[in-house]
Fold this protein.
Amino acid sequence: MKVDVEQGSGFCFGVENAVSIAEDALRDGEQVYCLGEIVHNDIEVARLTALGLRTITQDEFERLHNCKVLIRAHGEPPSTYEKARENNITIIDATCPIVRSMQEKIRKVAELSREQKGQIVIYGKEGHAEVIGLMGAAGPTGILITGKGDLDRIDYTRPVFLFSQTTKSKVQYEVVAEIIRLNMEQVSPDLPATNLKVHNTICRQVSGREPRLREFARQHDVIIFVSGRNSSNGRMLFEVCTKENPRSHFISTIEEIDFKWFEGASSAGVCGATSTPRWLIQKVAETIAGK
Ligand code: SF4
């Protein structure tokens, strides 16, 4: 059976960057804490833990003093930086540059639109670290919408500045933006169309992967998708695969491979989320090919 690895699979640039910052920080042997899992992948977290990185919760962070804390690619709200200053914590900032520039943009837009009572609307997953950071940047005018069901949180008589979590589906974001536009038109037909500003903040590393993955899933008899179970990007991309190929299987570890999946298949494709290390995807492919 032919086994291929999808070329775009593996860490996105932001996660790659955060992991390399963590490895550099750990090199001198000093204790480094990481606020939340550096990446939604247990195997990679275990590898970095073995090098000395200790993952901590928000509660544990609040109690720390005089130490080094790494902020992962998802970023953090301003309150985290304030707390670090108060407790003499050195921040090693591995926020993805794309996320950081979105936080800055949100902060600027929130400030500039204050007089016109603008609303910063963030489309994202509740409780997701990146979304917490973005909502923190938005301040009190921030409104979180997780889907169509939350759209009544918006006041359609006031300007709306729409942003999306970087890893959301582009198609779903466009649908949400269109419903907001229609609602605004209906509630306030006299208001100018410019009252809605949709910011294109889906990360291209993710949105570009959807069409490529679709093609890859179509080209193979069986698809093995490798991802941590708590990766929202992983779940979203796996859904893309299953829609194209019903013989798609989700695994987090090599041990979860069931060789019965390949019965009668002449090709298998191995791919993963933006939080799945490339070495793990490669190992999965080698295990399947070696059987
Ligand atoms: S998905 Fe994009 S924005 Fe998010 S961490 Fe990766 S590179 Fe950065």
In short: Residues 12-15, 73, 96, 98-99, 166-167, 203, 205-206, 274 surround iron/sulfur cluster (CB under 6 Å).
